[in-house]
Specification:
three-stranded antiparallel β-sheet, about 200 residues, 3 strands, mainly alpha, single chain
């Protein structure tokens, strides 16, 4: 599409786009987690519905050319309004899918929307996001980091039950009880401290 020209959707295409936006946002696990946990307050779900309306309005009623950076900023700012900072790259991914979906609808092509309809939303997948709660001093106790880097916030990683099922994750360098042989060879066995009080 020529960036200098803003194409308009037909009524049918616009309806398909609106449905596609809702489907895509319902499958954005970072957003759904923030909504379900009400990180943005009791009206988090209403806010997410308003986001869908705002995106639809931006895509269909903007008189200016549409740039993906603007959409990414909109998504970022919205997630921050839910006290959630995204660190898993999903903002860029969602923005790209929305732009592609809009382009397809302009051409009367609903392929990506159809794929969303046919796939079930993922269950139990937790993205790398964090709840941005600067007032909680407890977050800084676990590690000795200073400043506002990722490790000083509440980082939500994949559920432990999933990683524990993988045998490779269980193979950690733990000191063996019998260390006499190593000591005789001049080796000193020191318990690893890297897993204590820190999250990777």
């Amino acid at each position: 599409m020529d960036p200098g020209k803003v194409a308009q959707l037909s009524a049918e295409n616009a309806a398909q786009l609106q449905e596609g936006i809702n489907l895509l946002l319902s499958r954005w696990s970072a957003l759904q987690m923030a909504v379900e946990n009400e990180w943005g307050g009791r009206d988090s779900r209403l806010k997410s519905q308003q986001l869908a309306a705002d995106i639809f309005s931006w895509l269909t009623q903007s008189k200016e050319p549409l740039y993906i950076d603007d959409l990414e900023n909109m998504l970022d700012e919205f997630m921050l309004s839910l006290n959630t900072e995204i660190a898993d790259g999903s903002v860029e991914e969602i923005a790209e899918k929305l732009m592609v979906m809009h382009e397809e609808c302009l051409e009367g092509d609903y392929k990506s929307i159809q794929i969303l309809k046919e796939t079930n939303p993922p269950r139990g997948v937790v993205p790398h996001i964090r709840q941005d709660d600067s007032s909680d001093d407890d977050n800084n106790d676990d590690d000795g980091s200073i400043g506002d880097d990722d490790s000083s916030e509440m980082v939500v990683d994949a559920p432990k039950s999933q990683s524990n099922m993988n045998n490779n994750d269980m193979m950690v360098d733990e000191p063996r009880p019998n260390t006499a042989a190593e000591a005789e060879d001049g080796w000193t066995v020191v318990a690893s401290k890297r897993n204590k009080g820190r999250r990777n």
